[in-house]
Amino acid sequence: MVRKSRFLPTPTRNVRQQEPAAAPGDKGSARLSRNVMGSVLLGAGLLGGCALVGPDYERPDLALPAEWPTELSVTMEGGEEPGMWWKRYEDPVLDSLIERAQLNNLDIELAAARMMEARAELGFRRADRFPSISGFIEAERENPGLTGGSTGSEFVVAGALSYEVDLWGRLARATEGARANLLASAFGRDAIRLAVITDVVASYFEYRAVVDQIQITEDTIVSRQESLRLEQARFRSEEIAELPLRQAEAELQTSRAELPALKAAENRARRTLAILVGDLGAVLSGLEDLGDDGLPDMDEAITDLPDVLPSDLLGRRPDIMAAEAFLVAANADIGVARAEWFPRVDLLAIAGTGATHIGDLFTSNASLYELFGSVTAPILDFGRRQASVSGAEARREIAEVQYRATIMEAFRDVGDAWALVVAADEELEARDLEVQALINVVAAAERRYLGGFTPYIELLDAQRALFGAQLNRTAAARDRLIAMATLYKALGGGWDGPMHGEADRAPDESESSRS
């Protein structure tokens, strides 16, 4: 009888019905097995050199502007391309926070894990293009019962080689798509890392601004305590009425009331930075190593931006490159779907040894081999394959629209970021002038009040206006620093730095790395 092996899709030869054994030392069967196996591999290799079904990727035609607006392009003449753009702030605490964030931020870790998953998928798709080799051992003891015959045994030790001949490029297109998805995940990781770095910069300067505002408020409280003591002394000597004294007391309490909210904002900023840098222990308590310095002084205007053309954004912004990689993957999926319309050729070769007694295994007359070839062709599937092709083409259209939309968003980001920088520059300059003017107003109001020419409320109004102007000046300085970071992010971040390094080499390396 013949039984179907659970290892094989077709029956193996019944080794109990072999032809008479060959003479000892006869190697003909073994040579035949090796020759057949070699022929199968050679034929598979020749058949594997095939044309690819489906469209080859071409970048969509894009109507990109040739130049930036004049005011922006002027600042891009001759500037250096910073690899780590945040270094221009010259703040070692910020440098340390960004380094920690790149190592420990959970969003970056999640993106790195997705990149590892995409890398594994690429390895899987690559392996599909090569033969699969497996080995198996079978042992059977059979009693035919009332059907007649004698009880017998069968032992088989063999290897099987299976191979799908990629005549139409289905597997090649699947590999192309997996490679593009790996690039997309790598560039996506870079985009997340750039966003996290920008968030660290923004949150850090938020913290520094609050520290400055707390210092301004505390200085104001000290000043108003001195004013209250002066008014108390003048009231006791009957130089003033009670109203100026009560006004001084109220103004002091108003200043003190500003502190709790600022302290709470400081703690929130610390915890926000703790989340960004991935410090779980500091999420509740806040980072303790930030120090209490205020905002850095950066009075110079932005005149050292690198010379970047609008078209350069396509190769600088990781989100654009990720969107294009998704488009490449969607384009490859069309080829995979179209290849399903064509016949699929599968080959299976088995070679080994089989006998009715274990001792006869691996002898020359116990050699066995089997060759199988199958061609599966679609005949009628009620529109399944066409629906698959239509779906792949639709996903390709969606990916192209998303790619174009990402580019449009990028240009808008650059324009908005530049507008923020210009506005922040102008506002900071105006706030500086306002603070200086109000300092002079307070000095004049104080002289007039002490000289008895104006009531105390006039001096209080001037002091209150100066206090508010100083807080607003700090906020303007913070906004300018953050606007600079936003502009660098909009232009693609760390040019010639570590930002896109791993993404560029991702498809060709087997090891996974986390940055």
What does this entry show, briefly?
By secondary structure, the protein is an alpha+beta fold. The chain is 58% helix and 9% strand. The chain has eleven helices and four strands; from the N terminus they run ααααββααααββααα.
Can you give a write-up of this model?
The chain has 515 residues and is of the alpha+beta class. Helices cover 58% and strands 9% of the residues. A four-stranded antiparallel β-sheet has the order 1-2-3-4, covered by helices on one side. It is elongated and about 135 Å long. The chain starts with 27 loop residues before the first helix and ends in a 10-residue tail after the last helix.
Secondary-structure blueprint of this entry?
Blueprint: H1 28-48, H2 70-74, H3 92-104, H4 106-128, E1 132-142, E2 152-165, H5 170-236, H6 242-276, H7 282-285, H8 318-339, E3 344-355, E4 367-376, H9 384-450, H10 456-490, H11 501-505
Antiparallel strand pairs: 1-2, 2-3, 3-4
Q: Keyphrases for this structure?
A:
515 residues, disordered N terminus, 11 helices, single chain, alpha+beta, disordered C terminus, four-stranded antiparallel sheet, 58% helix
Q: For the CA atoms, what is the radius of gyration?
A: 38 Å
Summing up helix and strand content along with how strands pair, one would put the structural category as alpha+beta
| CA distance, first residue to last residue | 62 Å
Our estimate of the beta-strand percent is 5-15%
Number of strands: 4
Please tally the helical runs, counting DSSP H or I stretches of 4 or more residues.
11
Biggest sheet overview = 4 strands, antiparallel
Strand order of the largest sheet: 1-2-3-4
Shape: elongated
**Unreliable stretches:** 1-34, 495-515
Q: Could you tell me the mean pLDDT?
A: 79
Question: Helix amount, in percent?
Answer: 55-70%
